[in-house]
Amino acid sequence: MWSRYSFYSRTNHTLDPTSSPELYNATHKTFSVFDGCENMVEGILFDLIFQTFNIVIGFPANILVLAILIRNRNEPTTSDIFLGCLAFMDAYFGLMVPIIFLNLFYWQSKEGWMALKFSYGVKDTSGPLFLSCICLDRFVAVLFPIAFGQLKASKYRIGLSMFVLCLTFAYASAKTVGGLPNFEKVFTGEILATFAWMVVCNLSILWALKRSRGAGKDEMHPMKKKAFKMVLSLLAIIVCNYLPPVALFPFQDHYSPLAFTCYVQPVGYAFLNISSSIQPLVYLSRLEKVPFLPQTLQKMFCCKEKKENSPA
Description:
By secondary structure, the chain is mainly α. It has twelve helices and no strands. It has helices at 5-8, 20-27, 42-71, 80-107, 110-143, 145-150, 154-177, 184-211, 222-248, 257-273, 275-285, 295-309.
């Protein structure tokens, strides 16, 4: 008997997902994505809906982010390398969603299960680590401007991005191979560490920007006010997307195995997965003008700016 989440979940179970097709053929068991959770399908449906949102909204949004970053490559910001890597990985994860569904309901091939595990490994690692790199970049820029000026060269960010990519592919490869004892604790430790770092980092940035007002001034400098709102929105996303798994996964032993598999795990990962759509949408919403969009949508994005700039 194989648990439904033994192939759908990212955690390691006794039965490795890559062996699912053979077991399926051997037992002639009718395949079901809800196998083992037939009476507790709400959490799995919740995750599947979020997965669908990623291909419908997240994939084109990430492609648009990549196109904008390439278009602005002559005038890049220091975080563009990290943003580009994050958008590329999220686009890849979104593109895997229809392949995942096809394999779940139709192909059921060994290669499909391995590709599924690899894509989950990429998402597990690349998102938190590249967001942490963005937080680090802004943390140094705001709190240590002199050091930031000395480390502005792209080679440092390229080197850090290559290191993160190596960690990502190493983690995803290990997850694909499977069979490593207590491997799921690697993800739990990673998500706890990166979440704590991102929260502390962004709170420090907000505190520094808040204190940077001139003496006797009630208003913040416009550029710093823009940075303040940007970091505040990033902090809100980090809390919304990463707090559920951070709050739920370390207490796995306190849930029954069925409740954790059918409810806690899919819901926690659903919030993590939807970051592939939320992150590019927030980036696009911060732009004064979004290129490559139809004129009607451009007016919707730019109308607020025009109203603000129009004479009283």
